[in-house]
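Intended use. Records like the one below are meant for learning the mapping from a protein sequence to its folded structure. Do not use them to infer anything beyond what is encoded.
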Amino acid sequence: MCGIVGYIGGKEAAPILVNGLKKLEYRGYDSAGIAVLENDFLVYKQSGKVSNLEAIIDAKVKQVTTGIAHTRWATHGEPTQENAHPHTSNNGEIILVHNGIIENYKFLKDELIRKGFHFLSQTDTEVLVNYIQYIQDKNQLNIEDALKKALQSVNGAYALAVLDKKEPNKMVVTRKGSPLAIGVTDTNDEFYVASDAIPIVEHTQSLVYLNDDEVVTLERGKKLKVQDIYGVTKGYKVKNIDLDLNQVNKGKYEHYMLKEIFEQPSTIENTLYSHLNNENTQISFDKLEELKEKLIKAKRIIIVSCGTSWHAGIVGEYVIEELARIPVEVEYASEFRYRNPIITDEDIVMAISQSGETADTLAALRYSKSMGATTFCICNVFGSSMSRECDFTAYTYAGAEVGVASTKAFTAQVAVITLLGIQLGLERGTISKDTADGLVKEIKSLPLEVNKVLNTEKHIKSVAKNFVKSSSFLFLGRGINFPIALEGALKLKEISYIHAEGYPAAEMKHGPIALIEESLPTLMIATNNNFYDKLVSNAQEIKARKGPIVAVVNEDDDEMTHTADFVFKVPRVSDILQPIIAVVPLQLFSYHVAVYRGCNVDQPRNLAKSVTVE
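Structure written out for the chain above:
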């Protein structure tokens, strides 16, 4: 969840580090710091944004060509200057930055205190850097060997970049459970390190992604050396990535989130056409042939995911069960492996994650694999841990998503799941070819239909202004739109800090109706063809109790339009495709409410983009 940047080479390090931190600020923004090394460490740390850090960096860093940097999302200890990274060992010779959580830090800290070590912060990271010093001093080891030996006694998740003053031409990096990438060049005279590709690609598009428990030594003029924590030499692959830097600029938009909402026609189109054949009439997934038999014969599919991706999974449950008639269970990845779930080798376990690094989802995936299940992931990041470890990966082609609140990644995930449901239904004979062809034809029109919704932004913005002072919101949907109610509620609470709950509309009478009054607005998704009359009845029940209603309705709607106080009109599509259309006005509504309330929509408080710690 924190962001790491490192550089060793011939260029001035500080500008590379600071610019890299700015690109990673969506991963953590409670505090930031950099350290550069020449004859000694120069360390700069500051609470708050990277701009606060940038303001205190002085001319001493000029011409220094080695350094590490960090943006923090607080776990152990408040977001203060003292708790900011980098952290230095007691002897002042080792410094590191860390993403993750050291679970046995208290045990290690107590041991180090008994041996005379002292601590300036409340972080687990300061414990780790001093434990490395302790191991190095005790065994008279160089920095990479000291790190490897120290990590053999460490429990938890980490991505680390480490410098040792005694070896100024060397940087050592490692990971376990937290992502880390190395940018390489043809000449081996410089290396870039970062939590993801975004800060690296302007310098090189040749990346090495680390696997768990790999320790990599980066030394000027030498090829990188990869070993595991026990000293066994490992091979590595260099991946060439194609990432458009324009994707990580806001362009004409005030916020990344708004830009990413408006990118959805193109990201949905890119995702759809990446999984349609050359004639764009049939669905094609790379390597699906290898798993087709298992998919066709699956007794059930278990979807594991978190947050917005969990909502995409619930949409997937409706789609796959409707079209392919395979039982689907949707699980919170964070709870899944802790309840001793029953997994067999006849199960398909599908993980959904934008980053492919979500710690809970990755752990659920690994558990399922160990139990013999076939694993499948839907992911947006090539080379991510999930994509490397799964039996099969279906990529969403949403491009880099910087806004913490996911928008375009969600609709891309739902697009992939819908295509998969159509394909499985066709393969299993549960839908006809005519039905499949009709759905494919209709799904190809979704980018155009989403664009129609985006053209109503001005109206949605005007409605949002009426709810700036609301303290709570109820979101209701039925059938396949129920998860969209959940997603709408999540978006509003994430970025505007308004308490919001999503419910199946039929459940309103089983509790939430007690809350209905003039001060509690309800947002209803009323586009379902099959449930429309029931939704109108729910709306009448709310109006009878003086509750304000905002409704998402089809363009040709009549009755709900006259019942609700405000409506967002969207094109009419088949029920199975409605989630992609219905979610867009909810994204815009949440965005504009948050902006009117003065919230930082790209970096909402206490949240980080990729949750890489449990």
